Every structure is written in C-alpha cells, then in structure tokens.
Amino acid sequence: MKSLFDPSDGGKPFGSIGGKGDNLLLLQETFAVPPWIAVPDSVFRRCLAEAGLDGAIREKLDTLTEMTAGRIAEDLAALILTLPIPEDIVRELAEAVPARFGTDFVSVRSSAADEDGARHSFAGIHESFLYVRGTAAIVDRMRCVWASGYQARALLYRQHNGLAMHPVPMAVLIQRMIDAQSSGVVFTADPMTRNQLQLVISTLYGLGEGLVSAGLDADTVRYNKTNGSFTQTTALKRTCFALNTERGSGLRELPVEKDLQQRPALSESQVRLLAETALKIEKRCHRPQDIEFCFDPQGRLFLLQTRDITTVEEYGPAAGNRQIWDNSNIIESYSGVTSPMTFSFIRHAYAVVYTCFSEVMGISRATIQANQTVYRNMLGLFEGQVYYNLPNWYRLVRQFPGYAFNKAFMESMMGVKETTDVDPDTPSAGFFRRNFVELPKLLALVARMLYRFMCLKRLVPAFNNHFNHYYTRWSSMNFRRHSPHELMQLYLDMETNLLRNWKTPIINDFYVMVFYGTLKACCKKWCGDGNGTLQNNLICGEGDIESTQPTRLLMELAAAIKADPELAHLFSTLPPQELLSTVAASSKARHVAAAVQDYLNRYGFRCMNELKLEEPSLHETPEFIYQMLANYVRMDDSLLDLAAMAAREQRIRAEAEQHAFASLTRMRRTVFKFLLKHARCGVKNRENMRFARTKIYGLLRQLLHAVGETLARENILDTPADIFFLTLDEVWDFVKGTAVTTRLRELAALRKEEFDGYRSLNSRPDDHFETYGMAYHRNRFRAATRPVDEAATRGILRGIGCSPGVVEGVTRVIHSPRDDVRLNGEILVAARTDPGWVPLYPSVSGLLIERGSILSHSAIVAREMGIPAIVGIPNLLSSVQDRQRVRMDASTGTVTLVDC
C-alpha cells in the first residue's frame, strides 16, 4: 500500500494531509497550483510508534509550562530530528519525487490537521523549507517539519487554544518551487479595519518569504469589491529573496535593480486577475481568505495556499445568503426591545395577511405557494429589535404589475433611505413569453387591482361593520373566566374572522402607496415642490381621524377642569399618582373621575407601545391620563381651542391647494384633483383602519394576560407577565399537547435573561444593515458605511418635513411618554413615536422625531392637529440636548441648533 499521496493520481490519502493540503486540493480543482505530493500524518505516527517514543514525549509534555517550554522543545527536537524513517517510506519518496518533479527544486512545508482552519491558522508557528533538492535532503527537512510541531511557540499555541498536544497531526507537503518574479499575500477582507468590501494585496519582488518572514517593505493594493477600483501604495523595495545559488539550496537576500525599486511589483492587469481569482476563492470557501500567490517570469499566476482569516468578526459577502434589514418605519410600532410573544404573533400575522392580500389581488395560488418563504419571513428580530426583511418585501411587490413604480412608492411609505434590488441576475423573459404569457397576466392583474381600488368605497364600510361586529362581542367578555383551551379557541376565532379578513386594510395600503406616491411625484414635477412637503399639506385637514378622538376628549375634559379654579389648582400642583387618589376621594371632582372612567371604558385598551403585547394598558396605568390632563391644564387657553386647531389645518390645506393649482394646466388640474381626492381618502381610511388594529391588539393583550394568570396560578410560570417571554406556538402547543419543551418556567427565565441583556446594551443594531450566511453568526448588525452629516457638524439637522410651520423654542427630549414630564409649549424631541404618544401632542409646539416616514402615524396625526413636525432626522438624539433652544422649519425639514 502506498503511504504517500499524489493528488494527480486521484483517490483519497491514507491519513490526514492537513489543513494546507486540503485547501490545495480545493484550489487545484479550478486554479493553477504548483505540482505537489503529501506525506500524510499517518507516516509520522508510524515512525513514532516504531521508535517507541510516544511515552517519552507524553511524559515530557505533562510538565509543560511557559517556563519549561523552551527546554522541553529542545529535548523533543533532539528525539524527532534523529527519528528513523522506515526504508519503504524512503524508497517511495526516492521514486515519487523524481517522477513528479524531475530535478526541480521543491519546498517542504508543514500541514498540520488543525492548521489553516476556520478557528486556528497556525500562521508562522510551524516551519517550511524552500529550494530543497534530493531525497536525502527532503527526508532531513521532513524531520525538521515534524519537529517544528513541538517547538516552544507551537506547544504553547496548542496549550492556549486547547488543542491536542501529542501526537501533533502533522502531514508534510512537497511542492515544486516557482522561480517567482513577484509574490505576496491577498486578503479578501481588510485584516486591520475588517472591512468586508475591501480586498488588500501585499506584494514584493522575488519570493514571498521576504514578506512573511523577513519583513521587507512591500507594495499595498486596496481593491474595492463593489466597483472594482483600486489604489496602490508603492514601497521602496531595495532587496528581495531568491535561490541561494552559491550554496545550491535555500534562500538569500539580493538587491533589486535600481529602476525597479520604486515601480509596482504588480501590473494593473495582474492586480485585476489576482483580485478576480481571490474573490472566486472566497466565494467557494464561504469565508474571507488569506491567500499566498506568486507570478512566474512569464506572468503566470500560481496559488500556493489559502486559509480562512480567523481574526475577522464577520464572514461578509463570502458566506453568501445576503439579507438586507431595515427598521425605518416599523420602529414606530415596535420601538426598543420587543418580546418573543409579540414577534411570534406579528411574524405570523404578516404571513397570513399578505398571503390573503395576494390572493384577493389575483396572484395565482401556484405563485403564492412558490413564495411561501417570502411570506413567512417578512420580518426579522435582532437583539430584540424588529426589522423588515427588505429583499422579501421587494419580492412581494415584484409579484404585482408596475414593479419599477411600486418599488419606489413602497420605499417612500416604509421610509427606506437606501434603495436596493433583489435577484439582479434573474434572466429576462424571451419575446414570446414576455408578450404572450407575461403581458396578459400583467393586464389581468392591473384590471383586478383597479377593480379592487374602485370597490374600496364599498369595502371600507363593510370592513368596519365586520370588525365592529366581532369586536363588540369579544370586548364585552371577561377573559379571566375562561380556561386556556377556551381562550386558545377564541384566539383562533379572532384569526379566522379578523386576521384572515384583513384584506381591505392591505388593499387600501397598496392604494395609498400608488396614489400618494403619484401625487408626490406630480407635486415635484408639475408644481415645482423642491422640499417634497406640498403633498403633506394637501392631505391635512381631512378630519374624522378616529385615532385623534381620544386626545380631543381629554382636551375637552381639561378645558372643563381649567374652568374650575379649585380643580385647576389641584391638577397644576399634584403629581399624577396623587391626583388619581385625590380625585377618586373628592366629591367635587366626582364628574372628573366619572369622565376618566368613561374614557377607560372606551379607550382603556390603549398603551404607549400599542402594538407590543407585553406593554401595560391604560387600565393598568390610569395615572398616565391624569398626567396628560395636568399638562393640558397648564397650557395656554388658545392651545386647547379645538376650533382654532381645525381652522389652522384648513388654512394650511387651502394655501397648499392654491399653490398647487396655480401651477397646473387645465388637463393636469383634472388629473391632479383625481389623484388628490384618492390620496386623501386612502390616507384617512388607512389611519382609521390602523386604529382598528390597535383595538384588536388590546383584546389579544387581555386574552394573553388571562392565559398568563392561569399558568402562574398553576405554578407553570412565575408571573403572568412571563408569558410574553414565550412564543404564541409554545403556549398553544402546551395547551394542545404538542409541545417539544414543557418546562415553560425555565424557558421563560432563559428568554428573560437574554432579553434583559438586550435592554442593557449601550448600543443597538443599526437602522439598516446586511447579514450574510447564518444571520446570527459572524454578523455584527452594523451598516457597511456611516456617512458623516456635514450639515450636522455646522449645527443644522435635516429630516422630512411633514406638517408645516416654523417654531423656535426649547426642546424636551422624551424617551417614553411615561416619563414624569411637564410640557407647556416646548418642542418634543424623541427617537420615535406611536399612537400612544398622541396625548402629548397638544402640550407641545413642535415635533422632532429621529425615525419615521411621511406616512407614519406621528406625521399624519401631527398634520391633523396642526402641529409642525419633522420626522426621519438622522442623529437627532445625539445632536440635540434636553432644554436646548432650536429653530425648526417644517416646510424645509431643517432644524437649526440655536444654542450649540
């Protein structure tokens, strides 16, 4: 049986050929690799066994410490360097080397089994020898390679990394030497900055040993993977390494010709060839690579080895499976850390709702079935933060006609700042398929979409009636009186009767996307709207927005309180918790307590983060209502004037109409009025149907609390709130008998510890980032680039103006509407808002929001209440301090820091 391995013979080696050998096998499938053979590690183990040295080596290694490593290495080297080599191995080498290499020089290189791996590179740890010739010299160098596995630095490296100490699994590679014109190393990710989009080449004349071991000055090339551009820093290369011709083997340092010393070692064509080759290797290995290469005098590229870069935190594009994540708009609904229960529900809800929407819009069942992965993965969760899975949203929109237009409208609605595309390599359809298959489908979808749009006038009232029928029935139930299996059935009824009939809101969202997007484009093109805010002014003042009614009720109650001096004094001086108890005990304030109770009966399902099921509702925190009433009582009377607020909205609307229509021809005016009418109707319907969503979330919150109370009472969970650290399926599976984990207490505790850890982090994932490979492995959830806002450094911030007005005043930075804040005309500054923040709006003179889009809830309600607002302001919270004076111009979307 042959002991040596020659890859040109095919077959598999008898024993390991090490990490370097495995990687050479991979490389030579596609690329030019100098011929080589391997002495597997089984040969080394055989030699040790036949010499009876295993016991002696292990005995010495038992005493290994940093202090003894040097002495132990010397003793082991003495044993291994005199190790007898069996005659059949020497004979096989004597036959194989001339047959494979003739009289050419070879290198004798280490290749341990755990060398050049994903976790341990062993870079510079083991020995290799260049320009070796003759069987005797090869055998001698082979012993030296084996011994290098036991030198002090190798032993300590293995001990530090918890690797096997003996026998070192050391194979030896024998490879033809290339008389290199230039050599070097290419890193497919920058090893210093860890930039995955930059490839770095370090190169010099002669052999790469001058770079790897001697530390000679070398040229550096930085190649941009995105666009193929590169920069080159040329070093002064006075010397290089080449064959020691005097000795007939080994290396020596030689001077480089004068006229070459300051010229690049690689030509532009060689740089591009090397970069393209390296990127192919990276793609094949699914990891960033550290590749050794050389060019021979004829300009041919040879690859000498490749290994994973073990120091990078991310694998980057090399790992494949590129995913793009963005939370531009969804953060308004799911700010901060979101519980496992909420995420499990919304992920399922999105899949159900958008599947139903596709069905009603005429997408074929076959197409929907083929895209189930898309529907089931519309969202992602990173360190507790909810994100859109953008590629899947693009794939969803691509199923509908007019992808190029709808894509832009979707990005505008979602507030996506960085546009992208998915599946760019998808081949275009041929002439026949495009005109006789795809075109008829497109026309049918357009017709069906227009038909659904025309039906919205009938569908919206029908949806409201359908919703109110079930909501009235369920909201009157006392969930605490029902068992978990009854509540599970009730949840399934909710899903069947409401979630799977949520088609109208989604059709209306699509309707808004089309008409609002087209209106915005016409405002810019036809009306000269450079600021991009005219369409916002045109759709304000529509009135009858249900989500604003709760705040208007509180404002009316505050006006009544303010008219009574004694009550006004109470609300102006007492903190919210004390107000709650004082009003409840006061006969004079009985009508206030009754009004608050009536408010709770109607809107007690509301809370600060209304779509997060774990959040306590107003039923549990009624003191928030008293805090808002106290703020309103302290306000100027003019700010509580609802009629004046409505008049201001109508004035903004009328001025916008006058500006728009003055710029239009008669034909364009007709089209513009049509677009405006439908955009106004769609936005109004969208906001009202979103309030229906808030109501159903309130019911589901109560239902799950009731289940949690039962589980806590039965000693299955520690507290009722622990149910929110489980997923919906985990709870129902426990009820049904299909759970794979029944220890819910321990599972909830584990999740609670994990999610508490997310809350304590000093930073959260970026708003927009990409992941590769396995999303939670070797990805840092950071944007590839973070552009510097030069305007921000000059004291000017820019966002999206969505409700016009100019205000100069003092800011109040608020992290949660539950904060004990007293507001009276300041400018509210927040990372994001949701409908639960609306009660704060009447108490402020302006809104500055870091996140959000022109169609986010905060923008719509601010317009409806006539409050100047700017959303989507990058770096707002890091730039603006609490109680800082600023000037905001919501018409242009600019914020000027007056005190900076």
What does this structure look like?
There is one protein chain. With 900 residues, the chain is an alpha+beta fold. Among the domains are: 170 residues, ATP-grasp fold, A domain (Dna Ligase, domain 1), CATH 3.30.1490; 134 residues, D-amino Acid Aminotransferase, Chain A, domain 1, CATH 3.30.470; 49 residues, no CATH class; 108 residues, Phosphohistidine domain (Glucose Oxidase, domain 1, 3-Layer(bba) Sandwich). It has 30 helices and 24 strands. It has an eight-stranded mixed beta sheet with strand order 17-24-23-19-20-21-22-18. The chain has a six-stranded antiparallel beta sheet with strand order 8-7-6-5-11-12. A hairpin with a 5-residue loop joins strand 11 and strand 12. The longest helix is centred in the last third of the chain and has 48 residues.
What are its keywords?
D-amino Acid Aminotransferase, Chain A, domain 1, 900 residues, alpha+beta, 30 helices, Dna Ligase, domain 1
